[in-house]
Each structure stands twice: as C-alpha cells, then as structure tokens.
UniProtKB/TrEMBL annotation:
Residues 4-180 form the Bacterial bifunctional deaminase-reductase C-terminal domain. This is Bacterial bifunctional deaminase-reductase C-terminal domain-containing protein. One of its GO terms (molecular function) is 5-amino-6-(5-phosphoribosylamino)uracil reductase activity. It comes from Gordonia namibiensis NBRC 108229. Signal peptide: none annotated. The lineage of its organism: Bacteria, Bacillati, Actinomycetota, Actinomycetes, Mycobacteriales. InterPro entries: DHFR-like_dom_sf (IPR024072), RibDG_C (IPR002734), Riboflavin_Biosynth_HTPR (IPR050765). One of its GO terms (biological process) is riboflavin biosynthetic process.
C-alpha cells in the first residue's frame, strides 16, 4: 500500500521556513546533498535535476502534495516544479490551469485516502506545516532533514494548534559532516 511521506528540511528548533516563508538559510551544499540525490532524487525540482544530470526515474514517489504557499515559492519561473510527478496543490483560490498540476480545495485527508487506495509509488508531502497538520493522521513516514540552524521563529513543522500525540519509531538516521542529519520515522 502507498505511504504518505512527509519529507522536509527542518531547523533545530522545528521550523520548515522563516516567518515569511524564507528557506534560503538551509544548507544546499555539502556531503548531505549526495544523500538526497542517492535516495530522494525525485524530490528535486525537475528543471534542476535535468540541469544537473540527475536521474529521477527510480525514485520512491510518483505524487507530490503541497500547500499554496509552498507551491508559490517557484512562481512565476517554475509553474510546474515537479513535472516528473503527479502534482496536487491545496488552495481555496486556484490560479489559471497549469499543465501537470491539479489545484484542489478538497479535504486533504480524503484525497490522500483516495490516492492511497490506488496502485502507485509513495506520496510525498512537500509542505507546508498547515497542510501537514491537516494530514497528521494520514502520515505514515517522516523523513526530516535536520539542519544545524536555529530560526527562532517561522513556519513550524506542524501547526502549534495541534496537540494530539502521535507515536513514531526511528527506523534510520544518517549524520553528515555539514551537521545535517536525516532522521526517518514510521508510524508506531
């Protein structure tokens, strides 16, 4: 059965972006990047992967979910950032249609349940924190790219309005010289 995987970079203090969506402080150079291209090449935007000669055909994912703010990061230059995946963007104000992107205002949990019920590869929850909070009950696996940074404020991994303890078990961890750690958890 397909899994919903929340794969995301996070600061030491639990933020996936700064207060205004900034993410440029996250380290994008160093030995941890080999870990990304080795196992998660399909999470690299299509145009970057092509430019770098990265093969995305053998990845774990065939679908990516994101909120409107996460999607807007690449606009207007990259209106279809993950063309190698089925892309779903949750928004109440859908923009003009874009090839390869499905804009929806459906209940995220219902859509994920529907996607899980059909054959395919895993589903990548790209961001953001509000969408992740709405999908907490559907998340099967967390892959956190823990960055050696403190933000002090920003967009949290999950909305602070959520307090419903959910147990996950550590199944893998990798530490890199850059100070980045990949921590992988599955639902207990």
């Amino acid at each position: 059965m397909r899994e919903l995987v929340y794969y995301v970079a996070v600061s030491l203090d639990g933020y996936i972006a700064g207060p205004h969506g900034e993410f440029d402080a996250f380290l994008v150079e160093g030995d941890h990047m080999a870990g990304i291209t080795e196992r998660f090449a399909d999470t690299i935007p299509t145009d970057y992967a092509v430019a770098l000669g990265i093969d995305q055909s053998g990845g774990d994912f065939d679908t990516v979910l994101m909120g409107a703010n996460t999607y807007a990061v690449g606009l207007p230059e990259a209106p279809s950032p993950y063309r190698h995946l089925d892309q779903y963007v949750f928004t109440h104000r859908p923009p003009e249609p874009v090839d390869g992107v499905t804009f929806t205002d459906r209940d995220p949990a219902e859509l994920v349940q529907e996607l899980k019920s059909v054959d395919g590869k895993d589903i990548w929850l790209c961001g953001g924190g509000s969408l992740a909070t709405q999908l907490i009950g559907e998340i099967d696996r967390l892959v956190l790219k823990r960055q050696p940074l403190l933000f002090g404020d920003g967009i949290p991994l999950f909305s602070p309005a959520m307090y419903k303890p959910e147990r996950f078990e550590l199944v893998d961890s990798r530490n890199y010289e850059t100070g980045v750690s990949f921590m992988e958890y599955v639902r207990a």
